[in-house]
Amino acid sequence: MTGATSKARWHFLPLTIKTILLISIYSAYGLLQERIIKGNYTAIDGSETDDTFRSAPFLVLCNRLTSLVTGLLLSQITSINSKSSLLPDNSSGRQQTWIETLLARVRPASPFIYYAAVAGLNNAATLSQYSSLSYLSFTTSTLGKSAKMVPVLIIGHLWYNKRYKVRQWIGAFLVILGIWGYLTSLPRSEEIKVTTNWIGVLCLLAYLLFDGLTSTMQEKLFGQAKNQDAAPSLMGITGGIVDQMIWVNLFSSIIALSMLFLSPSSTTIPSIQLALTSPTLQLHILVLSLTATTGLLVLFHVIAAYGALVAGLIMTIRQFVSIVCNAAWFGNLTSIPQIGWAGIGFMAAGIWIKMDRRYDGKTDKNNMSRLITLISQYLGPSVACPVTFVVLITMIEFTKPPETENIDAFWKIP
Fold first, then answer.
1. Nearest to residue 27, comparing CAs of 301, 319, 345, 313?
2. CB-CB contact of 272 with 55 (8 Å)
3. Averaged in consecutive runs of 10 residues, what is the pLDDT profile of the chain (414 residues)?
């Protein structure tokens, strides 16, 4: 018994470390998104720019190039750790050039049109996400992305006649309740800004649409290849994942570069000039790209080691941790009333209940055990999550951390 307990603790410790790592990476990613989109930067000559960095295609291009280079490096590492079955037959004795070896290792496993389709949808989703931050707050944008389960359930039930479990409908109801509580608790000026800023809302809806299409298209086009290459080759990162990292990001880079040239010069040229002359902006873009790529690799490893359900729960937790971190960093904790934070807690409870499969298929012997199950499955999260958010925010406000008076002071290079 003691040995089993020690083994469970030994397995729990790496998961805890990876959970903290994932939450930290994606929280930094969320903070940098808003800092880059909404903050002003100082050029090398010391002149303060009046405009924010407004070229979303440039950010996407930097992000995709970083992922592409990472994919190329991983292809070399995985080829060293595995059998060289992907390399061409060299029985003739001719020495291969490094270019031939590289091309053999990155040979595409699917038609180019597959990669281009996924790249186009993924770029559209990322651009919509960046654009929404120009009109909506980070909290509103993140809550909107978290609520995509509601239209998925409704459309799936009405259009495709799908049957969903009770926990999924209860989770959707709590998400709707949380959104209502958050929006109605905002000050009148903020409420008008959220409900009337249709550009930001449309960008957010476009993100939800393209993000869903990206996942569906990726599963449809590459699902068979994933099954054929299910054995992990490097910490859960399979050859199929590396293949997609290389070719999808290559086409994404081409699309982002094309969009950069087609963008209005009034926003593109000043943004590029600012990126070339501001060390702070250069650091932020570099860290943003590295966190996006690193977070994705850690997520792949967690999925391979612990399953998609555990990874989904971790990513759900990190969304709400990002909201709290963002509000704390930028001094926006008091801009959301406690009722609003309780609404955010109800959204977290709804998503948790929707994803919690521990009680599926469980049969209770009597009414008392059935009551305990209902309390544990539904009432517990519905009470614990809102109370946790309210208590946490109250404690943070009570300690009165030094607020950031200006968004430009965040991670600023002297």
1. 319
2. yes
3. 48 79 88 84 63 83 92 76 48 60 74 88 88 80 77 75 85 88 72 62 84 73 51 56 85 92 81 87 92 86 73 78 78 77 89 80 74 84 89 74 49 48
